[in-house]
Amino acid sequence: RGALERTAEAIVPSPVARQLDYPAIISKWQAQFPEAALKPRLFDKNAMIGSEIVSDFFATAELPNPSYAPIATDDVARVSNAGTNALLHLRQRLEAMSDGQVDGTVWRRVVALIEAHMPGSCALLPDYEMHAIDAAFAESNEEVRRTYFPERDTLFSNVYIGRTQETFYDLKGPEIEDLFNLIFALWQKGEAA
Question: What's the pTM?
Answer without folding.
Answer: 0.60
